[in-house]
Design a protein that fits this description.
Among the domains are: 7-58, no CATH class; 102-142. It has five helices and no strands. 75% of the residues lie in helices and 0% in strands.
């Protein structure tokens, strides 16, 4: 069976543990004295990594977030169902408000389209302007 940690890594952790017990070990960022055994081990392993010793990779936050996303995918809880129901009800309320604003926006854009086509004469410019107007109309309705 292969070893996870090299002998040099174990020696480095041992050194940091002695430093902690003597009160000489300080954390890198704040410079405060380290009193936690786990923190001392973590400092020893990170220093061993810097020296190039054989140490497993550091656990990162991305692995934890992947677990969260997996639990979200499984869903199936009552809370998730109640949230979906709440979202649906709010969307129904907003659609009635949006429909009135959409009607007025379409009337405005229809009148502006006819005037822009007459003035510009080119179809490309008219489509660009109408697309821009639609975007602004959508932003206003939100």
């Amino acid at each position: 069976m292969a070893r996870r940690y090299s002998k040099g890594a174990g020696d480095k952790v041992e050194e940091t543990m002695h430093e902690m017990k003597e009160g000489k070990l300080k954390s890198g960022r704040s410079g405060k004295k380290v009193t936690s055994r786990k923190q001392a081990i973590a400092i020893g392993l990170s220093e061993a990594r810097e020296r190039g010793e054989k140490v497993p990779e550091k656990k990162t936050a991305t692995k934890k977030s992947s677990k969260k996303s997996a639990s979200k995918k499984s869903g199936g809880t009552k809370k998730a169902a109640s949230k979906k129901g709440a979202k649906k009800s709010t969307s129904k309320k907003t659609t009635t408000k949006k429909s009135a604003s959409k009607k007025s926006a379409t009337k405005r854009s229809a009148t502006k389209k006819s005037t822009t086509k007459k003035s510009t004469g080119s179809k490309k410019a008219a489509t660009k302007k109408s697309a821009a107007r639609k975007k602004t109309a959508n932003k206003k309705s939100k």
